[in-house]
Amino acid sequence: MDLVNSTQNSTWNNDANMSSYSAIDGDLSTYTHTAIGDDPPIWWTAEFDGVYLVTRATFYTRYNYPNQMRFAEIQIGSSNETLSPTNNVCGTLGEELTSLTSYSFECDVVGQYVVVVNYEDLYVIIAELELEGYLLNSY
Question: I need a surface site. Which of 18, 36, 72, 99 has the fewest CB within 10 A?
Answer without folding.
Answer: 99
